[in-house]
Amino acid sequence: MIVLSDSALDALLAQDVPYGDLTTDSLGIADQPARMSFAARAAMVLAGSEEAARLVEKAGGRVTRVSPSGTRLEAGAVFLEADGPAGALHRAWKVAQTLTEYASGIASRARRIVDAAPGVTVACTRKNFPGAKDLSVKAVIAGGAVMHRLGLSETLLVFPEHRAFLPGPPEDWIAALRRKAPEKKIVVEAGSVEEAVALAKAGADVIQLEKLPPEAAAAVIAATRALTPPPMVAPAGGVTEANAAAYAAAGCRLLVTSAPFFGPPADVKVTLRPA
């Protein structure tokens, strides 16, 4: 599945090669037959390979092999091979490499959190780099996680910044939300155990714990277990591969995180040589 449109891929190529490749053209090697391969320098989860392949094709190359996004790669594993004129492969080389490196970095970090908490759903927030949502979402899914929210239009999530404008008790505005959007879950962010329990008793479906430790999550789960139905308790803020298992052990079945979006790209080796 390719999530970036042809026009978006054209724009990426235009940014990098707006007026031709001065070096390749000046050396007079653009028409020589060539082949190119992409390989993982270290173990990683692949993402963006379909877009990389399409970039090669749009630049004038021919893809002979490509592994799908979501593939676990060991160090040295080749995931894309192409041939064609050297000029075409040089045009696609760096854009395709960089795209797969950044997307695979996100996918690999997401997978490490998923692996750290088996049986728990890992949901990534919308805090991807602005303008990179499509590829970021694809990378999250390739890593085995899901999206927490794609944007503001499809989910109800009440932050303290919303509640500052609501004079009544939480029972009132939760009931109003349920009347306005009866098919939606009502998610409310809480900054303490006491606040979380009060919001759960007021009728919130999901309590999102803002930067509370695993022991606090366990306390909220214990205090709300008898409610009918009990709320889902979802830690958010500061959830990483280092503490995902502790949250799972506390009884959390959903972890909300931005961590996959922040970190180094994966390292991809490109080999480009005469055919």
UniProtKB/TrEMBL annotation:
Pfam families: QRPTase_C (PF01729), QRPTase_N (PF02749)
UniProt keyword Transferase, yes or no: yes
Domain Quinolinate phosphoribosyl transferase C-terminal stretches: 106-260
Alphabetically ordered keywords of this record: Glycosyltransferase, Transferase
Gene Ontology BP annotations: NAD+ biosynthetic process; quinolinate catabolic process
Family: Belongs to the NadC/ModD family.
Protein's name in the database: Putative pyrophosphorylase ModD
Origin species: Azospirillum cavernae
